[in-house]
Specification:
alpha+beta; single chain; five-stranded mixed beta sheet; OB fold (Dihydrolipoamide Acetyltransferase, E2P); 3 helices
């Protein structure tokens, strides 16, 4: 191999190393992601932040208690703990849910613990934080006070509800 071939080969290697060094300067930072629980209620899709839902229970017996507000159909016993159950449809403007057919999403948020009656669980997904859009300014009705934003799921817009806002409405 001639000296000029060696020099050419060395220059090519140096050029390749410089290119690699430049690409190392660009850091690929993964965007923060959040867990979302997508569910149905009254034929519509909604979602909660996953950090506000501790578990999903199948339909179970809800014990009626006299004097409870209309949005609380009763209480349930979860492994010895007595928890209230909220009919989310009351706040979303829908017909009352059938307790015998409803799943219960156990919500926990800053000292607030309660079951939330839902029709079914669609999915639990991790999405980029930037995928959460602000709610439409034209959004009206009872749900407006609970909305944290909107996401796209399965080609549809899904309303993201905030457990903290629900807790604030109930504990007033």
């Amino acid at each position: 191999m001639a000296a000029s071939d060696e020099q050419l080969k060395s220059e090519l290697i140096l050029d390749e190393l410089k290119k690699r060094q430049r690409t190392k300067d660009v850091v690929d930072v993964e965007e923060e992601r959040v867990k979302i629980v997508i569910f149905t209620s009254g034929g519509n899709r909604y979602a909660f932040y996953g950090n506000g839902i501790s578990e999903i229970l199948p339909a179970c017996e809800i014990s009626w208690v006299p004097g409870l507000p209309e949005y609380l159909p009763g209480l349930i016993n979860i492994r010895g703990d007595i928890e209230s159950v909220i009919d989310i449809r009351y706040f979303l403007g829908g017909e009352r849910a059938d307790p015998k057919k409803s799943h219960i999403a156990m919500a926990a948020w800053e000292g607030f613990h309660s079951g939330v009656m839902i029709d079914s669980i669609e999915d639990v997904v991790d999405i980029p934080l930037s995928a959460i859009e602000p709610p439409l300014s034209t959004l009206g009705g009872a749900a407006r006070d609970l909305v944290a934003g909107e996401i796209r799921y399965g080609g549809e817009t899904v309303t993201l509800l905030d457990i903290g806002k629900l807790a604030a409405k109930i504990t007033l």
